[in-house]
Automatic annotation (TrEMBL):
Mn(2+) binds at residues 116, 118, 152, 176, 375. GO terms for molecular function: metal ion binding; N-acetyldiaminopimelate deacetylase activity. It comes from Slackia equolifaciens. It comes from the Bacteria. This is Amidohydrolase. Keywords: Hydrolase, Manganese, Metal-binding.
């Protein structure tokens, strides 16, 4: 087929399975599982691959690596090595969020929700798999599909790398349904797109006392509350305003009874930085703020700082290939000029090893209530864009293997 015929075929195949992609998304949305516990999700993915006749391997407990072998005359050499191998990745885990959307396919697992769109990623990738599997004669090499667990806790990509997911891979494609980009638009620009992602815990040690006698103790909850405010001066006063930085406290715990002044408390949170310079500065500055504040109250505080994933940066050539694929499929107007985000993604760990691109598939549409951000209990997507994600992944793979 000519290139334009291949694109037309992908669009036609996508249109034929659009309802299936949406139904698949709704199934996974209703049955979310937390990071490293995605056993039923993994089982369902494997069952669908089996029905399509696609071989796969189960790795890292709940991860899946599937393979589509092209049958174009030059797809493999005499030793059975693929001419080129492209990897497509989808993450599969959900979040500890109690859903409040009221949708008919709302989560059946109380306290767990696909509030980041990974259900969409599974559905879009299975759609791409179906499209690619039906056009193997046009594949000049091999497609590897990575269904990855535990992205939300920043360890899944490393697990899959250790399991051999990138061995022999020449290029990589990933995508994320994204609430900051309008439905119908896709962003896959070159350069840095997402932030460095690090984690912290602060343990506060005070002195417990009777709730009626606060002067006889050191209230760890008061110290913890003060720390929530104090550490924000890291953003407002310690780091240049030209350096993007976010410090968020996601948990605060302390106390055992309503009439006992807490002797201990802890906070956990995340730090997002854009530059490596800021990333290196934060732990020392945070330690300084925490120690001084605790001392002022007569308490002690211990900082535990964990470096997570590096910032995600798209390879220039891969980004250009992805943008060409978007234009082929949907026209120039589908390209978004989205500036990037201080959210993080462990896809960045793959990009340290193999050149690739990470695309943001826009799903924001007020007309269908898709206005809430990722990780919201009210999170919704415009499901009409799911087929575009499947078509883009398929087009990218076809184009990469044809080069």
């Amino acid at each position: 087929m000519k290139p334009e015929e291949l694109t037309a075929h992908i669009l036609e195949a996508g249109a034929a399975i659009e309802d299936t992609i949406v139904a698949t998304r709704r199934y996974f949305h209703a049955h979310p599982e937390l990071s490293t516990k995605e056993l039923s999700t993994s089982n369902s993915i494997c069952a669908r691959l089996t029905r399509m006749g696609i071989p796969y391997e189960r790795v890292a407990k709940t991860g899946v690596i599937a393979t589509i072998k092209g049958t174009a005359p030059d797809a493999y050499d005499d030793q059975g090595n693929p001419r080129r191998r492209i990897a497509l990745r989808a993450d599969i885990d959900a979040l500890p969020v109690t859903e409040e959307t009221g949708l008919p396919y709302e989560s059946k697992n109380t306290g767990v929700m696909h509030a980041c769109g990974h259900d969409c990623h599974i559905a879009m990738m299975l759609g791409a798999v179906r499209i690619l599997n039906d056009m193997r004669e046009q594949l000049h090499g091999e497609v590897r599909i990575i269904f990855q667990p535990a992205e939300e806790i920043s360890i899944g990509s490393r697990m899959m790398i250790r399991a051999g997911a990138l061995e022999g891979v020449d290029g990589l494609f990933g995508m994320h349904i994204w609430s900051d980009v309008d439905a119908g638009e896709i962003s896959c620009a070159p350069g840095q797109r997402m932030a460095n992602t690090d984690w912290f815990r602060i343990d506060v040690q005070g002195i417990s006392a009777h709730g009626s006698m606060p002067h006889k103790g050191v209230d760890a909850i008061v110290v913890a509350a003060e720390l929530v405010n104090v550490i924000q001066t890291l953003v407002s006063r310690d780091i240049s305003p030209f350096e993007p930085l976010v410090v968020t406290v996601g948990e605060i715990h302390g106390g055992e009874a309503r009439n006992i002044m807490a002797g201990s408390a802890y906070l956990t949170g995340t730090v997002r930085t854009w530059s490596e310079k800021s990333r290196r500065m934060v732990p020392e500055h945070l330690e300084h703020l925490i120690k001084r504040t605790a001392k002022a109250f007569g308490a002690k505080a211990k900082l535990t700082y964990e470096e997570g994933n590096a910032g995600l940066s798209n390879d220039k050539a891969s980004a250009a290939r992805a943008e060409r694929a978007v234009v082929k499929l949907f026209g120039e107007e589908a390209l978004s000029d989205y500036e990037g985000t201080l959210a993080g993604e462990d896809f960045a760990e793959y990009l340290k090893i193999v050149p690739g691109v990470f695309a943001f598939v826009g799903c924001r549409n007020p007309k269908v209530g898709a206005v809430h951000p990722q990780h919201s209990c009210f999170y919704r997507v415009d499901e009409s864009v799911l087929v575009r994600g499947a078509e883009l992944a398929a087009q990218y793979a076809v184009d990469f293997l044809a080069e």
